[in-house]
Design brief:
By secondary structure, the chain is of the alpha/beta class. It has 10 helices and 16 strands. The strands form 2 sheets. Strands 1, 10, 11, 12, 13, 14, 15 and 16 form an 8-stranded mixed β-sheet that branches. α2 runs parallel beside α3. The chain is elongated and about 70 Å long.
């Protein structure tokens, strides 16, 4: 199936208009993330339509807002939890234990035991010590092995920290079986914000080769966890989520056996476009009379919700009261006293020349990895508020 951006391009202004209208009608004392919960449901349904038989395990870390978990439970979503806290959150909102996977490959032994007592039966691993912990504290559990894959071209690569190689994966399966666990499959992550589904092909080839080797070694695998990577709109064209998901599934089904269980873990692609941050300009300044760039300081920065501007990987879009007027390049920074709290400098942002202290700035498509990244209060600046409409 060929992915298309047409449907997405038509829906984006409508989604933004509802959030912008709500923000315009309200006053906020501090940076606030506004979530359109109906847009979350639209994204879920759009992804589910493209993923077909694959079970959606929402990546809770993207945004753990109570209203989001509630709505997704009602829709029948499954959940990917990275910690005991996320498991407890999902269970408290009515998610069934069998609908929750413990997808972090680095887990405290006592948290594994907690998950096992709570009825969680599916765990990720990528190391021998982790397999041993799961065997001791969750006897008989199903385990899937996360693979280390080469970078795919994603805007936010997720290589090196998690996953293991082909030969180690086979050894971990053998260890798991010897310890009474059920090695059921493989997982990987193509990288967050993989904007083109064609970027999945090489990664899926790598995983399919390991799958074949595991079958040759006598392991009867029946679960493939394709992870996340489903993109959100940050200015560059992306396919409609249904078309994107369908294109990925076409790549999957041509490489893996018919009838296996397939899991997908959308996070950003589920909630990013449902959120908008209301922020304020604190200062506009130049370092010298001949400075080519203005410095624009917002009341939100890397430590209060915009951590994904690290290395300028995620490029947010901004709405100001002066849109349509003349613009000039700006270095955008947060309010804290840490010199690392600069959002965009390598590629300055074009913002209106009339922008001044006190102006409200809206940051589009911030529903993912903002409130969950915000600090408790670095430098005394408050954490990001969240309002759900």
């Amino acid at each position: 199936m060929n992915a298309t951006i047409a449907d997405f391009s038509a829906s984006f202004p409508v989604a933004s208009a509802r959030l912008e209208g709500f923000i315009a009608a309200h006053h906020f004392e501090r940076p606030t993330l506004v979530i359109d919960i109906d847009r979350v449901e639209q994204q879920y349904r759009a992804l589910a339509a493209g993923l077909g038989p694959a079970a959606i395990h929402y990546a809770v870390k993207a945004n753990p807002a109570d209203a989001i978990i509630d709505r997704l439970v009602d829709l029948g979503s499954h959940f990917d939890a990275a910690s005991r806290g996320e498991i407890e959150l999902c269970l408290s909102h009515g998610a069934h234990p069998e609908a929750i996977s413990y997808g972090n490959t680095v887990k405290r032994a006592s948290d594994i035991a907690f998950a096992h007592r709570a009825g969680i039966t599916l765990f990720a691993a990528d190391a021998a010590e982790e397999i041993a912990k799961i065997a001791e504290h969750a006897p008989g559990a199903q385990v899937y092995i996360r693979l280390l894959v080469e970078a795919s071209g994603a805007d936010w690569p997720l290589t090196r920290k998690f996953g293991t190689t082909r030969d180690t994966a086979l050894a971990l399966m053998a260890q798991a079986r010897e310890l009474g666990l059920r090695p059921v499959g493989l997982s990987f992550h193509v990288g967050s914000q993989t904007r083109d589904p064609a970027m999945w092909a090489s990664t899926l080839d790598q995983v399919a080769a390991v799958w074949a080797a595991a079958e040759d070694a006598g392991f009867a695998l029946d679960l493939l966890n394709i992870g996340g990577g489903f993109p959100a709109f940050y200015g560059d064209a992306i396919p409609h989520p249904t078309a994107y998901a369908a294109a990925v599934m076409e790549l999957v089904t041509t490489r893996f056996p018919e009838g296996i269980r397939i899991m997908a873990e959308p996070g950003r692609g589920m909630v990013a476009e449902a959120g908008m941050i209301a922020a304020e300009v604190l200062l506009v300044a130049r370092k010298s009379d001949d400075d080519l760039h203005r410095w624009v300081y917002l009341d939100i920065g890397k430590f209060s919700g915009l951590a994904e501007t690290m290395d300028e990987a995620i490029r947010y879009q901004f709405v100001t009261p002066h849109d349509g007027e003349a613009t000039g390049p700006c270095i955008l920074a947060g309010p804290s006293c840490d010199s690392a709290d600069v959002l965009y400098e390598k590629r300055p942002v074009a913002l209106p020349l009339a922008l001044k202290s006190g102006d409200r700035v809206l940051i589009r498509n911030c529903g993912a990895y903002t409130s969950s990244y915000a600090s408790v209060g670095f430098n005394g600046f408050p954490p990001l508020d969240v309002v759900v409409i």
